[in-house]
Amino acid sequence: MGTPDLAVTIDWHAAGAGALADLGVLAPVVGIYTALHATGVISGDAGVIVTAVIAVFVAPIVGGAVAARSASSAPLTNASVAATLGVGAYLVFRVIDAVVRNRPLSPGSAVILAMLSVLAGAIGGAAGARIRRR
What is the pLDDT of residues 107-118, one digit of tens each? Predict the structure, then answer.
């Protein structure tokens, strides 16, 4: 009995499409929130909570579903990679923003954001894989 081949090939086209879908949901929401907050239209925690829910859950779920539906194989792996790429791009932007505007970013919150985003991406991937099979 030989060992099974556990290598999984990542479909970079599918993962990239998922990451772009993730950022396509996230970027406008963050941009609109920032503009409304800067002009004083939004104050308090309600806008932050809505933006955070979309950033942490909705965007990676959409990205994971797109990656899973586009992947030739291993839909959950590709969905997780897509979510990782999406949250990674956002965190790079956020770190640059923190340096430029001198607004520190908590490493703990960045790690939690990344973990929850990848989990949400995998959930979106599971949904996308089920939709693809039908």
Answer: 999 999 999 999
Burial (CB < 10 A; 0-12, 13-18, 19+), residue 29, is: middle
Predicted TM-score (pTM) of the model is 0.86
Q: What confidence tens digit (pLDDT) does each residue in 22-39 have? A: 999 999 998 888 888 888
Cβ contact 59:20 at 8 Å: no
The domain segmentation of the chain, as residue ranges, is 15-133
